[in-house]
Amino acid sequence: MKQLFQHAATTLGVTVRVAVNFLPEQSRVEAGKWFWVYHIRIENDSDEQIKLISRHWRITDGHGVINFVDGEGVVGEQPVLVPGQSHDYVSGCPLGTPQGSMEGHYTMRRADGSLFEVAIPFFALAVPATAG
Predict the structure, then answer these.
(1) What superfamily would CATH give domain 7-131?
(2) Mean pLDDT, all residues of the chain
């Protein structure tokens, strides 16, 4: 099944696309736990090789409580992307409310060693009305 990316942001020739889905089978609504999975594609349309060094997430729940998540790489990887190449990964986010949002940035390193930030687009985490 082809994934439909609902959100995208481009910084200096690097595009980050996001598709997000609520997973009722991984959620425990009766215990106040909701879970989403997100698929990210990073596309290097710049003219230089880049390496993903770290991630910075701002996760906001339905009460406005903000959590920051920082770490090396993504899902244990620090992919190197040559011009024209893309990298896909899937991860998840649990929340204590049925809605929230995520946004952030990746820190990338160019071949010359210089660093720059690539925006991760804002995306909502929301339980579909049909999910009860």
Answers:
(1) ApaG domain (2.60.40.1470)
(2) 95
